[in-house]
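Hypothesis: this fold can be encoded by more than one sequence.
Test: take the structure tokens below, design a sequence, compare later.
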């Protein structure tokens, strides 16, 4: 294709390759005919030649128009233009083109050509639009036929199963192809949507839907309408990985927790609401907690505090990437605070209460300026979300320590809604004891029940009062269940699958996104918050023996990594006690870890630290577990022994016994006698304290006994 040639003359651009319109086309035809007639007269050209050329042009344009399927009037107008132009040229050659009669007739012919061209152009445009509209109507008729068939089928089905006659107003096919939604009008006489919702199971059976697919009725646009969501493909049966889109989120726009049966995301809006997640063992509750933490980590205006008295397992995957290093840059944990013991949980809850009360006093002017009674949450003043694993069980526990925690948790739930501090509690079952607390039922408006097909202790009527047609057998797969909130009625949903590698990726991807606690709140939280990552308070995370899987199979163990390699702090290096190995000093590692934490999290200096400038020797606060290890004990240390010591520490001030530890170490094949020997040794060297005698004997780690020295960072 040749490029258009543009000539500029006196500021006017002329495109000689552009097509002609009605005016320019008529002008071109008439001037061309006049030029041919004038030159032909001077050259004595026979008049019949002009008529022959016009006839050929008319025939050619007629053939072209027929091939393009143009309208008859368009083909006729073009052929007539050629014949009139050639006829005038023939007459002008015979009589002379320079007479007034010749010029006047040519002007009339030009005006007629322009008018005809404009008329047929508009006609062709209208004809083309009508053809497009006709095609669209044909598609609509075909779709409408399918929808009318669906509507008629479900009108009969609802009449047959529910005994009421509905009028279908619309049928919307889901873009995913997994089902459709029926918008129907209920009959007069006060019929409500729950007449249909109660028969969801019978409607599904009558429609012969596959297992895992439902026909769920919900309220329509008004109380006289009903929406029936019919799932035809079970999208909850397959395991769906967590999306790799780690884009920023906000507390105001909702945090995605899973997807509905139509594959649409369902979000939790927790600015004013608390949440309750219920799921028995094996239902995918732990995975759901990680999904929640992933959403919170992506948010730019939220800080997450986690309480997990089961050795902190819910929060550890979100903390360890920040302690492993190896990326060449400092990585912030995916959560802002982790408590694995009763003592640390009390510090966290007390700090939350202080923050909430201080915010109430300090931000009155800000709320008045914004004309709201809710604290404006933003990246500068972030919301604090307390995720408490098995927190519902803490609230109903009779143990003294848990009663103290329960009281503080209820105070946080009751008092700090407006100040941007909310909770997410988990529980093992939807039972009366768990849901018996009025505060939980009133404040935890976002509720999740992961069933995994388990029926024991899962009373959906207690968890979702007023919801009808919910049956546990509808969600037999792990990670599936029911979710309801004020924004979305209780219905089937599924949650994504998230693995440790992806958790690590999320921690690294969102490290620079986490907000920092505002200055007023940080000051109210005090040293307990500022020193939350002190080495003495995080030693339980790092003080354990790591065994390479290949070593367990008898292969040669990998050599210890030297200090400074890998681009980050090697916290595992100080677990090796062999004097000859090239491992840095444990105190030096702790000091380096403190330095990095101070730089990233604005922790305050430990008042118990010595001043090196004054010639004082630094003293490491807290317990140095490696000091109790002799060379003989290091030789017999194993993964099982370290796991037993971790269980002893996690047992807190209540302590534990040999039988309980041996049960938890069943995967190592460790006997009760072996564990008893360890406990006896630890009691002799002061690592543990023996309490009670006979069958009531238990052992308490010395850090949990009243006589143990206190960490100066916690004073």
């Amino acid at each position: 294709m040749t490029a258009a040639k543009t000539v500029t003359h006196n500021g006017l651009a002329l495109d000689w390759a552009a097509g002609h319109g009605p005016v320019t086309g008529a002008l071109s035809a008439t001037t061309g005919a006049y030029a041919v007639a004038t030159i032909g007269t001077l050259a004595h050209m026979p008049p019949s030649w002009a008529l022959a050329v016009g006839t050929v042009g008319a025939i050619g344009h007629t053939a072209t128009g027929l091939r393009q399927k143009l309208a008859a009037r368009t083909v006729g107008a073009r052929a007539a233009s050629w014949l009139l132009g050639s006829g005038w040229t023939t007459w002008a050659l015979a009589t002379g083109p320079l007479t007034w009669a010749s010029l006047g007739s040519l002007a009339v012919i030009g005006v007629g050509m322009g008018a005809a061209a404009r008329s047929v152009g508009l006609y062709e445009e209208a004809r083309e639009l009508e053809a497009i509209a006709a095609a669209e109507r044909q598609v609509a008729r075909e779709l409408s036929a399918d929808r009318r068939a669906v509507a008629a089928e479900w009108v009969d089905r609802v009449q047959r199963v529910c005994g009421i006659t509905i009028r279908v107003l619309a049928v919307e096919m889901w873009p995913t192809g997994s089902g459709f939604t029926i918008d129907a009008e209920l009959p007069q006489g006060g019929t409500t949507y729950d007449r249909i919702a109660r028969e969801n199971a019978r409607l599904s059976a009558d429609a012969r839907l596959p297992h895992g697919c439902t026909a769920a009725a919900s309220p329509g646009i008004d109380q006289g309408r009903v929406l029936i969501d019919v799932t035809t493909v079970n999208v909850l049966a397959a395991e769906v990985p967590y999306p790799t889109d780690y884009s920023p989120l906000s507390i105001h726009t909702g945090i995605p927790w899973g997807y509905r049966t139509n594959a649409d995301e369902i979000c939790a809006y927790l600015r004013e609401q608390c949440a309750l997640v219920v799921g028995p063992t094996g239902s995918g509750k732990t995975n759901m907690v990680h999904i929640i933490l992933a959403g919170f980590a992506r948010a730019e205006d939220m800080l997450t505090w986690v309480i997990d008295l089961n050795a902190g397992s819910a929060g550890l995957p979100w903390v360890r990437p920040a302690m492993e290093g190896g990326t060449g840059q400092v990585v912030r944990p995916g959560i802002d605070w982790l408590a694995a013991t009763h003592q640390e949980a009390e510090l966290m809850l007390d700090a939350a209460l202080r923050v909430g009360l201080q915010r109430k006093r300090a931000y009155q002017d800000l709320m008045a300026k914004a004309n709201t009674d809710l604290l404006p949450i933003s990246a500068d003043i972030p919301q604090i979300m307390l995720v408490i694993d098995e927190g519902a069980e803490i609230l109903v526990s009779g143990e003294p320590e848990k009663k103290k925690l329960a009281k503080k948790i209820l105070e946080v739930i009751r008092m700090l809604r407006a100040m941007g501090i909310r909770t997410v509690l988990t529980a093992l079952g939807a039972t009366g004891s768990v849901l018996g607390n009025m505060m939980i039922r009133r404040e935890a408006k976002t509720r999740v029940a992961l069933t995994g097909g388990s029926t024991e202790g899962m009373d959906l009527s207690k968890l979702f009062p007023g919801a009808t047609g919910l049956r546990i057998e509808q969600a037999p797969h792990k990670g599936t269940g029911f979710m309801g909130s004020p924004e979305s009625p209780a219905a089937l949903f599924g949650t994504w699958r998230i693995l440790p590698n992806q958790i690590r990726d999320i921690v690294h991807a969102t490290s620079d996104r986490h907000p920092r606690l505002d200055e007023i709140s940080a000051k109210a939280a005090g040293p307990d918050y500022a020193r939350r990552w002190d080495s003495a308070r995080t030693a339980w995370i790092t003080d354990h023996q790591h065994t390479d899987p290949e070593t367990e199979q008898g292969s040669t163990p990998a050599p210890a990594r030297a200090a400074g390699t890998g681009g980050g702090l090697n916290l595992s290096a100080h677990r090796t006690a062999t004097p000859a190995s090239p491992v840095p000093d444990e105190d030096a590692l702790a000091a380096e870890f403190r330095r990095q934490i101070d730089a990233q999290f604005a922790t305050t200096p430990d008042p118990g630290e010595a001043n090196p400038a004054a010639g004082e020797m630094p003293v490491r606060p807290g317990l140095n577990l490696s000091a109790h290890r002799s060379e003989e004990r290091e030789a017999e240390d194993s993964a099982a022994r370290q796991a037993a010591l971790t269980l002893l520490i996690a047992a807190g001030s209540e302590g534990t016994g040999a039988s309980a530890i041996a049960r938890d170490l069943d995967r190592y094949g460790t006997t009760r006698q072996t564990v008893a020997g360890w406990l006896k040794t630890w009691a002799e060297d002061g690592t543990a304290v023996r309490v009670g005698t006979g069958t009531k004997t238990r052992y308490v780690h010395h850090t949990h006994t009243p006589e143990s020295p206190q960490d100066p960072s916690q004073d």
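Residues 1-9, 545-586, 602-637, 708-715 have pLDDT under 50 and may be disordered. DSSP finds 23 helices and 18 strands in the chain.
Hypothesis status: open.
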